[in-house]
Amino acid sequence: MAKPKLALYWAASCGGCDVAVLDTNEKILDIANLADIVFWPIAIDFKYHHVKAMEDNSIDLCLFNGAVRSSEQEEIARLLRDKSKVMVAFGACACFGGIPALANFTNRDEIFRRAYIEAPSNDNENGTLPLTRTEVTEGELELPELFDTVLTLEQVVKVEYFVPGCPPPVDLILKLLDLYATGKLPPPGAVIASDKTLCDECTRKKEEKKITRLYRPHEIIPDPEKCLLEQGIICCGPVTRGGCGLRCIEANMPCRGCFGPPPGVVDQGAKLVSAIASIYQANSEDEIKKMVAEVVDPAGTFYRFGLADSMLKRKRLQKS
Amino acid sequence: MKAARRIPLLKKMLSQLGIEDERVRLDWVSASEGDRFATIVNEMTERIKQLGPFNRNGGGENG
Questions:
Q1: Are residues A132 and A88 in the same domain?
Q2: Of A88, A120, B14, B59, which residue is least crowded by CB atoms under 10 Å?
């Protein structure tokens, strides 16, 4: 029997998900033994036209990392969907928008203005901005178009499985491949992680959750044994899916929410508003004001990885 | 008490997402204050009508 064909792609991402695949160390050889890698831009020199030449459904498993925020990424997402039997949203960006989706607090015009005109390192007297089409003497040059809104993979194409994390931990990558190799994949739509919250899996000592002040991570050295929320540090553990292996918690840093909402939670940020306000002992108007002021950037903190996947998806876009 | 804490925090978050403050209102009405209840609901309906339908992307593309 021919080996199954595996494709990996990166869209709006930092490359960390691809590095996480390489972090499987010697197991990467097992992956290469198990499957033929037919497309992997970071590691192997296949081009888009090689993928376009493939038959539909000829790729068995596609691990797609990164959010979708340009016409090129959208085109390749659709192309890989057509060519793949099983599409996996791999990593927080593909699953929920991730860090790139923080751009949904702004829009293309504002991003271009900041990046190409206002940024202090620019020398752009003519105010030149990227154009999708440019005439030069040799002919017409074409660039992909940047979207106003960063999208999750599932907002563009049908997705069978989700492997969350920034980046996905090695044990979940191996679990996915093992489930695939042994034909034990769960029903489509499943998230390959834990069904509990991070708090359920956290090993820190938890007592009574009552706080009277919030600290930003740089304002305090947390007790490594105690619940971070009880120490007044915003930790997304109560509203985040577990399965990450407590990487941040064990480094004495709060959970940032990169595994997305747990089962049953629709909107991670709204849920965290509720949780923080419940435990903060503000019982007068002044104390409530103090609490609100101490959450310096609620939307950015509570939707750090999940803005594209949230109910509101983005900052309201005012366009005439 | 928790609602009194949640709504101001929620409003701060919604303002970052470009949603008008007037779209969310927290008020307290006793079970015996039927008139007051009706007045507040009518005021809120009127205010929302004035603001118009909520359009997430104001006609922008891709989302």
A1: no
A2: A120
Please give the pLDDT value at position A168: 97
Of residues A148, A302, A316, nearest to B19 (C-beta): A316
What CA–CA distance (Å, rounded) separates A60 from A6?
6
pLDDT at A34: 83
Chain A's closest residue to B62, CA to CA, is A149
Cα dihedral value A144, A97, A116, A10, nearest 10: -50
Judgement on whether residues A9 and A158 belong to the same structural domain of the protein? yes
The whole domain housing A121 covers 107-147
Judged by a CB distance cut-off of 8 A, whether residue B22 touches chain A is no
- Which helix (H) or strand (E) segment holds residue A61: the answer is strand A59-65
Distance, CA of B9 to CA of B14 (rounded, Å): 9
pLDDT tens digit sequence for A80-135:
999 999 999 999 999 999 999 999 999 999 999 999 999 999 999 999 999 999 99
A177 and A43 share one domain: yes
Instruction: Examine the domain organization and report whether A38 and A162 are in the same domain.
Output: yes
- In chain B, what residues touch A278 (CB-CB under 8 Å)? 2, 5-6
> How close, in Å, is residue A18 to chain B by CA atoms?
27
B31 part of contact set with chain A, CB < 8 Å: no
ipTM confidence score:
0.90
**Stretch A257-273: mean pLDDT, rounded?**
97
**Total structural domains in chain A?**
3
Q: Is A123 a domain residue? A: yes
Contact A94, A64 (CB under 8 A): yes
Give the DSSP H/E element, type plus range, for residue A10: strand A5-10
Angle, alpha carbons A268-B9-A219 (nearest 5°):
85
Looking at per-residue pLDDT, the higher value among A143 and B56 belongs to A143
Q: pLDDT per residue over A170-189, tens digit each?
A: 999 999 999 998 999 999 99
Among chain B residues, CA nearest to A319: B58
**What is the least distance, in Å, from the CA of B55 to any CA of chain A?**
8
Q: What is the pLDDT of residues A93-105, one digit of tens each?
A: 999 999 999 999 9
> Which residues face A62 on adjacent strands?
A7, A87
Residues A140 and A160 grouped into a single domain:
no
3-state secondary structure of A62: strand
**Shared-domain flag, residues A67 and A127:** no
Same domain, yes or no: A95 and A167 = yes
